[in-house]
Amino acid sequence: MDEPALLVLWERVVGDLLDRTAKFPKVVRFTFAGRIDGIVLDFLERIAEARWAPAPRKRVLLAEADLLLVRLHVLLRLAHDRRYLDTGGFEHVVRGVDEAGRMLGGWRKHIESRP
Question: Is this prediction's pTM over 0.70?
Answer without folding.
Answer: yes
